[in-house]
Amino acid sequence: MQQIETHRLILRNFSETDSQGLLEYLANPRVNCFLDDKISTLEEAALKVQKRSEDDSYVAVCLIDSGHLIGELFYLKEEPDTYSIGWHFNAQFEGKGYASESIMAFLKYLFIQLGARRLYAYVEDDNYRSQKLCERLGMRKEGYFIEFVSMTKYEDGSPKYENTFQYALLKKEWLINNPI
């Protein structure tokens, strides 16, 4: 991926210098969908960074002034032109608008550079911050899936199913507020 700069951020491929930043937010995932990514050592972080550095579908979000990794954006392409998108940010940097700023630039990249026609994101029904973020980005709530997926278990070992919203945005909708 080509590097993208916003006012305060750099979006780029992961690099070996990102291990500490990745460990900071993957050591204690706050959203169940990231439990499989949980790591506890710098060595595990380095291995994940290595894999992500070779995969353009993972985008590092870094502060422009220090280069410090504060989160990531990611996508999964579904042929021919639909992309599932997501994000994961370090809680220490919440409430400063970094997620909105980076994802706005990410949407432009997906729509203009990669030719996406449709983007969608899944958000758990108790993840209010991401729901509000989707709405600020102009995404519409398309669906609500009851007991959609299980990322964790109850104490007795039975699966705990998550209720999940789906938000989506078409390129033609995005272009109304973001003319090229």
TrEMBL record:
Key words of the record: Acyltransferase, Transferase
Residue ranges annotated for the N-acetyltransferase domain, each copy included: 9-156
Keyword Acyltransferase: yes
UniProt superkingdom: Bacteria
A Pfam family annotated for this UniProt entry: Acetyltransf_3
EC number of the protein: 2.3.-.-
Annotated coiled-coil segments of the chain: none
GO molecular function, one term: acyltransferase activity
Keyword Lipid metabolism belongs to the record: no
PANTHER family listed in its UniProt record: GNAT FAMILY, PUTATIVE (AFU_ORTHOLOGUE AFUA_3G00765)-RELATED-RELATED, N-ACETYLTRANSFERASE DOMAIN-CONTAINING PROTEIN
Protein name (record): GNAT family N-acetyltransferase
Organism: Cohnella boryungensis
